[in-house]
Amino acid sequence: MKKITLSLFSIPLMVISLQAENLHKLSTERNAYRAADQLVKQQVEYKDPGSSGKNLTWDFRFLQPINEEYSLNYFIPDSTNMIRLCGQEHNTRYYFRQQKDSLQAVGYENSTTYMEYTTHELRMHFPFAYGDTLFSYFIGKGQYCHRLELAVKGYTRIEADAEGELLLPKCETVKKAMRVRTLRHYTETGKDSVEMTLDTYSWYAAGIRYPVFESVKTTLSKKRDKKDEKGESMNDTTVFRTSFYYPPEKQTSQVETAPIPEDKTEAELGATAVFTEAQLMPNPVIDNLYIKYKLVRSAKVWFTVHNNLGIPQRNTSPQQLGEGEHSTTVAMGGLIPGVYSLFVHVDDMVMRLNVVKQ
What we know:
The protein has helices at about 30, 265-270; strands at about 15, 35-45, 55-60, 65-75, 85-90, 90-100, 100-110, 115-125, 135-145, 150-165, 175-190, 195-205, 215-220, 235-245, 250-255, 275-280, 290-295, 300-305, 310-315, 320, 325-330, 340-345, 350-355.
């Protein structure tokens, strides 16, 4: 095993704001991740992001599709830690800490790797507009196959570096798009040691919470003073690159209120196949919200209440309940009047209902 020594980073995260007159900006209200949101990305051939600047045009209309059903789901994995959010895609769970005006990455896990960041990685700070830049260091520790120790250390630089017109695959046009570049350079040590750079460009459209297009490239970094067999300098190697189109009509929240069709399976219907006949009383509510419902099978159930910014306000403890009728009370007193999201957690599934607080 190659052994390397790294010094600890001591520089705190920095937020550099150069806001002027912007076409639009990312905000907590409109762009923060939300539990129970479901997205479908369409993987397409890689498209070079081009230069930075204003009044640009990006033409992504005629890209060859690779995978048209690449899903991304957000949910709260543990009701005892309501500010911890999970985004699951491609058999990997990415964990975030979302609170007030910042989004931080705190770790990830899949079938082979577990990683927890002891120094969190800043992923976004709201509001964020053209010319704004974020910079942070991150440190993490984990395991590979539950046997080998892993460590990661690096930095992330995020910049809203371009604005312009975006032409999308289905002949959709975004007149005022903003591009955000996330440059992530890190060193991972374990069985082997590698230096990697992940370069992601994300295009946002006003009024749409998540990106509408992304280009991603991963590069294996090598020191310039190394020589190959012929004595020539070694270049960095691109190990992966692709692009994703996020159809706006497939950026949805999991809100199921319609009757359950009999020909649908639980896998297709999610929580609504198990959690049925829900009654919220009273709604609008002043103090206590009474929830009556029926389970068609045994399940672990709990409830969380979020405001319109996605920030958790109330939660109940998970309970393993049997088939049949049940009821739960959620204290809503003390909350300011408005519309709240009631998330119903059924095992590893989530559905959302609306509650009006008077």
